[in-house]
Input
Amino acid sequence: MLDTTVEILKRGTCPGGNDYNGSMGARISSVFVIFATSSFGAFFPILSSRYSFIRLPSWCFFIAKYFGSGVIVATAFIHLLQPANQALSEECLGPAFQEYPYSFAICLFSLFALFFFELVAYRLIDKRLEGSGQSHSHFGDESVFVKKAAESDSEDAAIKHEKEDEDDEDGKVSNSKEFQKLYPEHFSHAHDHQDPEALGTPVEDQDKEQYYGQLLNVFVLEFGIIFHSVFVGLTLAVAGDEFATLYVVLVFHQMFEGLGLGTRIATTYWPKDKKWTPWLLAAAYGLTTPISIAIGLGVRESYPPNSTTATITNGVFDSISAGILIYTGIVELMAHEFLFSNEFKGKTGFRKMLWAYFIMCWGTGLMALLGKWA
Output
C-alpha cells in the first residue's frame, strides 16, 4: 500500500473510484427532497412578493433579504474557496500544485475578470440607451428620475432640497449640476433606489431601474451559485459513509442558498414583457442539484470524484465561483445595499442598518457553521 502511494505521488496522479456503498433508496429520495428545499428557497421570496394570499409582513422579507446576503458571502469563502484550495493542493497532483496557491490565483483572476466584464457591459448599455435618447447609471436613469420628481413637487425631503437648489441663483445651480456630473454613475442609485420591502407595489417609472443592469447582476450571481451546485450534487450521489450527514446538511445548505438567490431575484424590477425571467432563474437553481445527483447516481460505478481530472476540475470551478460570489457579495450585496441606497436614510436609518447588519452576520455565521460538515 505504501509503495502504491509513493508511486502515485511520483506520477502526480490521484486514485480513481469513489466511496459509493449502496443505500440507493435514500440517494434517490435526495433528488426529490433537495429539489423541494432548493425550489422552496428560490421560489418563495418571488411568490410572496407577488401574491397577497402568501404575502408576509415587510419585516419577514427584510430578514430574508439580509440573511440571504450573509449566506452568499459565507458560501464564497467557506463552501467554495476553502474546498478549492484543498482540491488544488492535493499532494497526489504533483509538486507543481504544491508550489503555488492556484485556487487563490484563479479566484483573483475571476474577480477582476468579472469587474472588467461589468465595466464593459455597462458601457455597452450606456451606448444602447444613449442611442434611444435615454441615459443610464448602474441602477437607473438618475437625471430622468430627478427631473420628474422635481416637476411633480414631491414631498420627499431630498427631492425638495434639490428643487430648492434649482430655484437658487445661477452660480449655485451651476455648482449643483457640476456636483451631479462628478457623482459616480455606478452608484447613482443612491438617489434612486426603490424600496424592495414595499411588496406588491409596482414601480411605474421604468427609468428608475433599468432592466439590463439588474439582469446582469442577477445572472452573474446565479452563474456562480449554479457552478457550485453541480459539484455538490455529484459529490452527494457517490458519497460513502458520510452520505447521511452530507444529505442533511445539504438540505439546509441548498435552501439557505436558494433563499439568498430568490430574495435577490424578487427585489429586482422586471419589465412587464420579462415577467417570466425570475421564474426561469429560480427554476434553474431548483433543478441544478437534483439533476446533478441523478447524473451522479447514473454513473455511480464509474464516476471517480477523487481522480486527477475530477479534482482539478472541481478546484478550478470552485475557485471561479468563489471569485464571482466574493465580488457580488461584497460589492453588490454589502457596499451597494448598505452604503449607496436610500433604504437606511432618515432618523431611524442607522438603527435599521444595524439590524440588517446583525441579520446578515447570522446568515453568514450559520452558513459558515454548515461548512464543518459540507
